[in-house]
Specification:
The protein is α/β, with parallel strands linked by helices and 306 residues long. β1 and β2 form a beta hairpin. It is built from eleven helices and eleven strands. A five-stranded mixed β-sheet has the order 4-3-5-11-6, covered by helices on one side. Strands 8-9-7-10 form a four-stranded mixed β-sheet.
């Protein structure tokens, strides 16, 4: 089957994304008349109405929205292929990572990763958002999940499953010496991340049922909940990787009556790039950073991706 004109498809993709003939023409560096002609010819070629007038702009029809979604993915693939094939003395490696681990475990260890990838610019993006690998938003991500969730064209590997501690400052602990079992924590001021879910899971794991509505501040990021605990504001949940130094130094104490494990840290990347040398090295570096080197062998150190 003959494909439509590539120029017409580019014009349609730009119009659908910007919602305007004028904006699309500015982006493509052609006149609005040319863009309008491309859209008209594309609709005639496909025998389908793709856009409709809406005020001073355009809206995609139902058929146009479905077609635009597929065309956009196709252009994303072409852009990525162009980026991958273009010769360059340096490339970038973009890692999306949840903020707590990025700050507490990865930042200080970045020079080691850079030494193993000397021809790459390392871009570490602390974020709670998930990247779209098909659009090339990231090369890899590190995320905390309670269970492995699979997606088409994406591979995932568990790289660390640390224990979870209920932590507070020594001064706070001295105010509540009678806290010895999980149900006692319901009487304490609890510090939450984005929601109360983490504490709800902790209570469920500990066998506490019929939970009341949990109260307390929501601070969104683990490093903020840990800092609030250091300041004596209440009890926070944090895994070993984030608080082991605080526990060792005595800045925080562990009030947990039982050892608890709630999920783990996963490495995620596009399946088609899973065996790329730079991603293999990245996984090994992450295991060293999150597992103290236990997951790597002696032969890993000299290996480099050029």
């Amino acid at each position: 089957m003959r494909l439509p004109s590539l120029n017409a498809l580019r014009a349609f993709e730009a119009v659908g994304r910007t919602g305007s003939i004028k904006a699309a023409s500015d982006e493509l560096a052609v006149s609005p008349t040319v863009v309008s002609r491309h859209i008209r010819n594309l609709q005639l070629d496909l025998n389908v109405a793709l856009v409709e007038a809406h005020g001073r702009g355009l809206l995609l029809t139902t058929a146009g929205e479905a077609f635009h979604a597929q065309i956009s993915r196709a252009f994303d693939i072409m852009r990525q292929a162009n980026e991958d094939i273009r010769p360059s003395s340096r490339r970038s490696l973009t890692i999306w990572c949840i903020p707590g681990i990025a700050n507490q475990r990865l930042l200080a260890r970045l020079p080691l990763l850079q030494s193993r990838l000397p021809n790459y610019d390392i871009l570490l993006q602390p974020t709670l958002s998930r990247p779209d690998f098909a659009r090339g938003e990231a090369d890899a991500e590190v995320i905390h999940m309670n269970m492995l969730i699979t997606h088409p064209n994406v591979r995932t590997e568990l790289i660390a499953a640390p224990g979870v501690h209920a932590v507070a400052s020594p001064a706070f602990r001295s105010r509540f010496p009678a806290v010895t079992q999980a149900s006692d924590f319901l009487k304490l001021p609890l510090i939450h991340e984005a929601s109360t879910l983490y504490w709800e899971q902790w209570f469920e794991y500990a066998g506490v049922t019929d939970l009341p509505i949990l109260r307390g501040p929501r601070l969104w990021h683990a490093h903020l909940t840990i800092e609030a605990a250091r300041q004596g504001q209440g009890v926070a949940l944090a895994n070993t990787l984030l608080v082991e130094d605080d526990l060792a130094s005595g800045r925080l104490v562990d009030l947990s009556p039982h050892a608890v494990s709630l999920g783990g840290y996963y490495f995620v990347a596009a399946a088609r790039r899973w065996a790329d040398p730079e991603l293999v090295l990245l996984r090994r570096w992450l295991k060293e950073a999150l597992q103290g080197g236990a997951a790597t062998g002696a032969s890993d150190a000299p290996m480099r991706a050029e």
